[in-house]
Structure formats: structure tokens, C-alpha cells
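haha ok so turns out i had the wrong file open the whole time. this is the CORRECT one, sorry everyone. sequence first:
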Amino acid sequence: MKQKFDIISSTCVPLPLENVDTDQIIPARFLKATTREESFFGENLFRDWRYNPDGSVNKDFVLNDPTYSGEILVAGKNFGSGSSREHAAWAIAGYGFRVVISSFFADIHKNNELNNFVLPVVVSEEFLAELFDSIKKDPKTEVVVDLPNQTVTNKATGKSEKFEINGYKKYCLMNALDDIDFLLENKDKTEAWEQKAKA
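then structure:
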């Protein structure tokens, strides 16, 4: 969903599991879907963890626990490993997450998130562990993600860390532009350059 990023302050959904791959994020069988609707994929985010084999709700899984909610998913190290399916990013965005915080992302998945207006924030393992601890102690703990200043703050402890982001992707997120939108925004500059090159 195209939505401008600025500063997001939200409670979090904790997923303290390492090596969560894209097949766990959105199982392979959903790649055959003929729809591109994010809501469809969002409904099936972590499908095999959210539901039991008989289709009943797995009450022990965090997305089914009303204690936790928010626009920020806090995940363990090496999030989004496995296949390069963009559907995983569609599912995260379709569920309503705007930020995923982890100590490490698989590169392709990280870029897929950025391309689908989900901000992947890389923090130190120490900061991540403290964040999980704060959320466990108080599920109402809020985290502030400040994209302009590239900082993430745990409001429970007051501690902050800087995070890195490609300058082009930062601009696109802050202005709700995908790659095509960016090209169209710069159409006049592109045409001027082409004319100059022909001269």
C-alpha cells in the first residue's frame, strides 16, 4: 500500500524466532493465487502457524493473541531467508505491518519489503533482545521509528539506535513513490538529458 512514511509510533507484535523463511511467511501453495490483492496475502500471513491442520485457529500463535497488536513486527535474526518470492512482502504489508525490526534480513526479502512500502529496520542483537524483553514485560510498549532521522527508539527504556537505508529508497518511502512513480516524477529531467545527449 502506497503510504507516506515519516515517524511511526506503535505497539509491536513480537516474533522471537530466528531464520524465519519466506515459506513460513507465506506458504508456497499461495503463490498460485491469481490475485495481487495484498489483503488476500495478509489473511494468509504465517498461515501454517496461525491455523492448525484442521483449519482451526492456533490460539498459541502470536498473531492470534489479542495481547499483541500494532504496525511493527519485531522478528528474530535472519528474517526472510529462503526463496525470493515477493509474495512474502505482500503478505506482511497486507496484514498491516509497516515496519519489521530484526538484527538481520535476507537481502532479497529486505528489498522486496522496501518495494512494497514496508520498512525493514536493522538493529543490533543487543537492542533487539532488549526490545523483546520490554514487549514481554509490557505488551503496550511503544517503539518509535523515525525515518527522516533514521532512528528507532524503545520508549520503555528510552534507548535509541540509528539504522541504515538506501537514500533512494528513503526518498521513495517518504514520498509514497514506487520506481515507476519516481521515473514519472523525473520525466522532465530525463527528457531534458536525452535532448542534451542528442545535441
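The longest strand covers residues 7-15.
again sry for the mixup
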